[in-house]
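The following record pairs a protein chain with its ligand, zinc ion.
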Amino acid sequence: MSYDENNINMFCVQCKDWIDGDWSEHGCPSGYWVVADKEMVGIAERLYSMGITPMTAIWTATELGAWNDYEYQLTVKIDIGSRISEAVLGELPKGWHYFWSTAPPIKVDMHMIAYVEHWYNFGFDESAEERIAKQIKEFEEFLETRDAEAVKALLLLTTG
Ligand SMILES: [Zn+2]
């Protein structure tokens, strides 16, 4: 079972609303549109408020192995569109990393902040979705501790 294709939609961080129906009728520039899972809106909005508008913000829980509901690859991926200095956001919470490119031979430009975990469901008190939700919340809380104005200033200093 995989949850990859559930609830993937376009969210506009400028008017803080989902873009329904015909995207061409939406008034805000497309630079504000984020392909986002509904659980990821909090992260997208917080990053936008700091001057880092994501292109995509999605999570996946892909089941691995032979046993049902036991082994998962959990990912939370935020494509921030361009490389930023790691000093801007500083050290990320445990399990979160910057991904700036893929390994050869496929050379693709990548500008990602992501959480990746090979997770086993030992049947305690959390499901894969609850595990993901916890990581999303922790990253939101991490972003809350950042000073938005300081982040914006650092972005200006360290890009271009
Ligand atoms: Zn909008």
